[in-house]
Specification:
By secondary structure, the protein is an alpha+beta fold. It contains 5 helices and 12 strands. Helix content is 16%, strand content 38%.
Length: 290
């Protein structure tokens, strides 16, 4: 994917019956469906059953089974509640009769009320930084092949990391990361598409942040990494074709699980969304020698 329009097509699900939708997949370099894709598609299915004056304010989801890239995904929406101010939906993502993903999402009409937020971290501006593809271009000969392929992959989102490191030289670091991101290409005016693309992008950079204190981010091919659950809260309006800062930390890792959090800010400092995720992270089992 080179333009955001291709991702929007992927998130524009086919309705096959009332409360039933069909989606398709594209690889992001992994053998299974990218978690951010099924997350965003499930949210898209829910949005299709909600009045347009109600906007998603939170979602809570579980990744149950790996998704098959070659098989369509069926999204079944349960209309749990339509209240005076809030609407609740539950979504099941199904392949070959088995649930691979579950989501609950809540929507709310706009209201006035109390308003406060934490401050955005002070970091370099995105214009002072280089993108993943630029890193691959300039440092490709010094990178492991798997890292080069990951950085050089065409994506609908541009990522510009604030902190740089040499993956060929393992180094234990504090579990904090800051990354600027925005869509490649202009987004539609329809506000419903921006949370979908942010949900997609939010699955990048999270779980690997839990590897930073262990000096293992350059050893990803030797590790089994998988998102287990993912929660998001949408606080304020934003646009995905403007730069957003993803400020991530990892408070804990234990029992082969890493826990990560993220706050997402506009470049003028507005907190627009928060994220939490726990994922599996453990060494891959090596084949036994004969």
């Amino acid at each position: 994917m080179k333009e955001i329009s291709e991702l929007l097509d992927l998130l524009n699900l086919e309705q096959i019956e009332e409360n039933l939708f069909r989606g398709y997949s594209k690889t992001v370099g992994s053998a299974n469906v990218f978690g951010g894709q099924v997350l965003a598609q499930a949210l898209s299915a829910a949005i299709n059953t909600v009045p347009p004056d109600r906007h998603v304010h939170s979602l809570h989801s579980y990744f149950i089974l790996p998704g098959n890239l070659d098989i369509p995904i069926i999204f079944q929406v349960d209309r749990i509640r339509d209240g005076g101010s809030f609407t609740t939906r539950r979504v099941k993502a199904i392949q070959q009769g088995r649930e691979i993903f579950l989501m609950s999402a809540s929507f709310q009409s706009d209201e006035n009320g109390f308003d406060h937020q934490i401050s955005m971290p002070i970091v370099q501006e995105p214009e002072q930084l280089v993108s993943w593809k630029d890193l691959a271009k300039h440092f490709g000969e010094f990178l492991p092949q798997t890292m080069y392929d990951f950085l050089n992959l065409d994506r609908p989102i541009e990522f510009r990391p604030v902190e740089l490191y040499n993956p060929a030289v393992p180094e234990k670091r504090e579990p904090f990361r800051h990354i600027w991101m925005k869509s490649i290409g202009e987004m539609p005016e329809n506000s419903k598409f921006h949370p979908l693309v942010l949900a997609y992008a939010s699955d990048y950079n999270l779980l690997t942040s839990a590897l930073l204190p262990h000096g293992k981010e350059g050893s990803i091919p030797k590790l089994q990494l998988a998102s287990l659950d993912h929660a998001m809260w949408f606080h304020r309006p934003f646009r995905m074709d403007d730069w957003l800062l993803y400020a991530i930390d990892s408070p804990s890792a234990s029992n082969s699980r890493g826990f990560t959090r993220g706050n997402i800010f506009t470049r003028d400092g507005k907190l627009v969304a928060s994220v939490a995720q726990e994922g599996l992270m453990r060494p891959r089992k090596q084949p036994k020698e004969n």
